[in-house]
Design goal:
Structural class: alpha/beta
Helix content: 25-40%
Distance between the termini: 60 Å
Number of helices: 21
Number of strands: 17
Radius of gyration: 27 Å
Strand content: 15-25%
Largest sheet: 8 strands, mixed
């Protein structure tokens, strides 16, 4: 039976939207290490599951270009998007098309995007957005407008914050409006090819700020150090990284393996002055191969990570004593507060591993607006609707420890300590020197004075030991470190009976 003419027309038009219709452009993109929008989406979603919206849209430029040119050069108006599945779970996926005018945002493309945002909200779909591109596009002359500031895309995308999980992927230059799409997302995955900025080279030069290559605007090493990017990886691994991150939001894993827990008994060195890597502790408490550290190069004194415990997604915050001795800085306050908001919005219980001498102090620290930034952590902790469990690994001192515990040892669902831990209103040696200053000043011999300090500190340590703090019921229990995972599991099972943890759905601060 012959194919009807209208179907032939459809198939011919559809063929024009595929990568095969643009072999030279695709080859140039491949030559510089890039992948097309359809290749990125194909690598992310289950094969054959993608249902596209707005495939046949072209740029609003008929006053400047022929229809044939628009069909060739403005495929889908530079934005490919629709619904799909990942491991059988329903999701939405969008990708700016770098083959169409460097992935710039056209006004019909904005309309397509807004349409998909409405569907995403209606169906509560987790979303991955490949955001690379050059920002707003001039030259869409078919539509009556002057400033173009009435575009609603950015407001609609921002409004989804806390409503559905949204992961942005950046695998190329990402400037202006495209960078805002990334910045308003819950998590950003970026490759070593990425450069992010609120303005690209043309905008920078137009503002009289100099001439820069695209790669110089916001290179990945800058964007990881300043905390813009959550996960940095190679271009080859950027899609698997996005899939892995999205998996935390797609429900409980059915299978898992528990690491050997005896490691925890010797994971923290004796004494308070020896630094150690806290990540192996996090990886031991969580299921094997499930931990993803977020923003590792930004405020490294405070680790934030997603992981799983018996298949359930959890958020982990932990002091890293290798940096500022684990003291909480202004950046750490921002990092942790934003992470708690993310966990709270999407129903992830939080495990806080505490080993801190307190808040960072001193004139240099106060120049960073410590009072405001670290207070964000206290506010975020106090507003948590998901369970928080605190575990004091070694030092739990002052306001820093309270901030790590949601405001006090009474805020968590349970506050635990390991047997070598000490808790106090401030560091014990500092407390001794402050409270006994006059008595110590009266000792003229330096060696004798220091010996007296050490004796007093030893007495303070005995008084501040976890067991003594537990005897006064200021914490709930002191446990064998090897029992930590077991206790956490039982607590989270009690808090999440029948999968009741749905999250607050409150907006997540971009910072």
């Amino acid at each position: 039976m012959p194919i009807r003419p209208e179907l032939l027309d459809l198939l011919a038009r559809r063929a024009l939207t595929e990568d095969a219709a643009r072999p030279e452009a695709v080859a140039r993109l491949h030559a510089r290490g890039g992948r097309t929008a359809r290749e990125l989406i194909g690598a992310l979603v289950d094969e054959g599951s993608f249902v596209e919206y707005g495939r046949y849209v072209t740029a609003a430029q008929e006053q400047r270009r022929s229809v044939d040119e628009l069909l060739d050069r403005s495929v889908a108006d530079g934005i490919v998007g629709g619904l799909a599945t990942i491991d059988g779970q329903q999701v939405a996926v969008l990708s700016y098309d770098y083959l169409v005018m460097a992935g710039t945002q056209g006004f019909r493309g904005h309309t397509k995007t807004d349409r998909l945002f409405e569907v995403i909200e209606r169906l509560a779909l987790p979303t991955v957005f490949f955001a690379a591109g050059g920002g707003g596009r001039p030259g869409d002359v078919d539509l009556p407008m002057v400033s173009g500031l009435h575009a609603t895309t950015f407001a609609e995308w921002a409004r989804l914050s806390g409503t559905v999980p949204r992961i942005a992927v950046v695998d190329d230059n990402c400037f202006a409006g495209n960078a805002v799409i990334a910045g308003c997302s819950d998590l950003i995955v970026a490759s070593d090819r990425a450069s992010l900025g609120m303005g690209g080279p043309a905008m920078i030069a137009g503002g009289g700020l100099g001439d820069f290559a695209a790669s110089e605007v916001g290179p990945i090493d800058v964007m990881t150090t300043n905390g813009v990017v959550d996960v940095a990886t190679s271009s080859e691994e950027v899609v698997p990284a996005a899939r892995s991150l999205l998996g935390y939001f797609l429900g409980r894993a059915e299978s898992w393996t528990a690491p050997e827990q005896d490691f925890l008994r010797d994971a923290v060195p004796e004494g308070e002055r020896r630094a150690y890597d806290v990540l192996p502790i996090v990886e031991t408490i969580c299921d094997e191969d499930t931990v993803t550290v977020l923003r590792p190069d930004f405020a490294p004194e405070l680790l934030t990570a997603l992981g799983r415990i018996e298949g359930r997604t959890v958020g982990v915050v932990a002091n890293d004593t290798r940096h500022t001795a684990g003291a909480i800085t202004a950046d750490a306050g921002d990092k942790a507060a934003r992470f708690l908001q993310l966990c709270d919005a999407y129903g992830f219980p939080v495990v806080s591993l505490v080993d801190t001498p307190g808040m960072m102090v001193g004139p240099d620290a106060e120049k960073t607006a410590m009072v405001r930034h670290t207070s964000r952590l206290l506010i975020a902790g106090a507003r948590l609707s998901v369970p928080l469990v605190g575990v004091v690994l070694r030092r739990g001192y002052g306001l820093g420890a309270q901030a790590m515990l949601g405001g006090s040892t009474r805020e968590p669902l349970m506050t635990l300590a390991w047997p070598g831990a000490h808790l106090g209103a401030m560091g014990l040696e500092g407390a001794v020197r402050l409270s006994m200053r006059k008595e110590l000043e009266a000792i003229e011999d330096d060696a004798e004075r220091e010996a007296a300090v050490q004796e007093l500190v030893a007495h303070a340590q005995s008084h501040a030991s976890a067991l003594n703090v537990a005897r006064h019921f200021e914490i709930d229990d002191v446990i064998d470190p090897a029992e930590t995972r077991f206790v956490l599991t039982r607590l989270l099972d009690a808090a999440d009976r029948d999968g009741r943890l749905q999250g607050s759905r409150r907006p997540v601060d971009a910072w």
